[in-house]
Amino acid sequence: MNSTKTIRIATVTATGNRYIVQQLSLGKTPEGDRVHCWGEVVSVKGLSTKHSSSKTFPRGEVEIADLPSSFSLLEGLWHQSIRELRARGAHVTVSRTGRTAKNWTPGIR
Questions:
Q1: Residue 85 buriedness (CB in 10 A; 0-12 / 13-18 / 19+)
Q2: Backbone angles phi and psi of 71, in degrees to 5
Q3: In sequence order, what DSSP letters do the residues of 50-77 get, joined into one string?
Q4: Which of 27, 80, 82, 101 has its CA 20 to 30 A from that of 89?
C-alpha cells in the first residue's frame, strides 16, 4: 500500500498559475462544473500553509492533477504568490523564521 500523501492541484490553462483544490463541484451547480481552490499560498511552515481568499474557476479553464505532497511543491506555490504581489507593485520582503529554512512568510508594504 502506498502511503504517500498527495495534493490535488488545479493549473489555470490561461496563466499557468497553480492552486490547491478545495472541492470539485461537478454536475452540482446550474452554472456548470466548478473547481473551488484555496487562494495564493501566503505562508508555508513545513507542509502546513496559509492562503489568501479562495478562488473558483470553471472546470474547463483548469487542468487538475494529484501531485505528491512536498515542501518543494508548496514552496513553489508560495513563490508564485510573491511573483503575483510584485507584479501588482507591492514591495515584498521575505523572512525565514525558526531554525530551519522551511518557514516562509512574506512582509508586504
A1: middle
A2: -65, -40
A3: EESS-EEEEGGGEEEEEEE--HHHHHHH
A4: 101
Nearby residues of 24 by Cβ (< 8 Å), 6 or more positions away: 33, 34, 35, 36, 59, 64
Q: In this structure, which amino acid lies at residue 100?
A: T
CA distance 58 to 3: 31
H helices of the chain, where? 71-87
All three cell numbers of 82, joined, read 510573491
pTM for this predicted structure: 0.79
> Cell 466548478 maps to which residue?
34
Q: 64's torsion region: left (phi>0), alpha (psi -120 to 50) or beta?
A: beta
Give the amino acid at 22.
Answer: Q
